[in-house]
């Protein structure tokens, strides 16, 4: 659970959003908060789970996603808008953290609709992945603060932000139990978000309002010791939540490929 301490960080987060297209060096953000660079970085990371500059860069990429879907700007100009002078650098960073290239993301609305329809037609997917008897698994229960009719994407990530492909992940057809098996020893962050059956392709590609949760504190998996059960509670977006950068339709498509080998993009 992300702490509610350091409420002054909310003002800095609002400042980042207001000036997202401008250079935001650490000294500018720390000065706005009235702290030294070191102290500001420490309390920002304690509040959000991320460093100030990483948090700002994540929101710049989120702005790039918005611009790709909501404007006719060229991909180069989208990169320039968020401060990336090099098209190659923008493309590589976007692809690494979103999971698809900017061009693929811009053209993925039709596939997103098709994937949602394919998932809706699945029968009995609750029983598709039964937990095995090994210790290398993370399991628990999923709850939500608000009702929704759909499914949940849940995964383990290397950082406390849903970006890049999860190291382990699955889809759960409703609230209730989940189990991620075959998890190798390591340090992970658990992330989840909801998808409603009524969502549009744009809402799936730009999930600003989906229910979500994330663990700021890591889950450590060690050999021979079971991980405590996790209780996941989905909530409405909060000011200090990082954006969901990973392409949700990409995760949906990967799940469909696992359970339906004949499924194509």
Q: What form results from the Cα inertia axes?
A: globular
Count the helices. How many? 10
Oligomer: single chain
Q: Biggest sheet, open or closed, and with what strands and sense?
A: 5 strands, antiparallel
Q: Could you tell me the radius of gyration in angstroms?
A: 19 Å
- Kindly name the structural category: alpha+beta
Describe this structure in words.
This protein is α+β, with helices and mostly antiparallel strands and 265 residues long. Helices cover 39% and strands 18% of the residues. The protein has helices at 9-18, 26-33, 37-48, 52-70, 75-81, 87-98, 102-106, 109-121, 201-205, 248-259, and strands at 137-144, 150-157, 168-172, 176-181, 186-196, 212-214, 219-221, 230-234. Helix 2 (26-33) crosses helix 3 (37-48) and helix 8 (109-121) crosses helix 10 (248-259). The protein is globular and about 55 Å long. 34% of the residues are buried. The model is unreliable at 127-133 (pLDDT under 50).
Task: List its traits.
single chain, 5-stranded antiparallel beta sheet, 3-stranded mixed beta sheet, 39% helix
Task: Outline the secondary-structure elements.
Layout: H1 9-18, H2 26-33, H3 37-48, H4 52-70, H5 75-81, H6 87-98, H7 102-106, H8 109-121, E1 137-144, E2 150-157, E3 168-172, E4 176-181, E5 186-196, H9 201-205, E6 212-214, E7 219-221, E8 230-234, H10 248-259
Parallel strand pairs: 1-8
Antiparallel strand pairs: 1-4, 2-3, 2-5, 5-6, 5-7
Helix pairs in contact: 2-3, 8-10
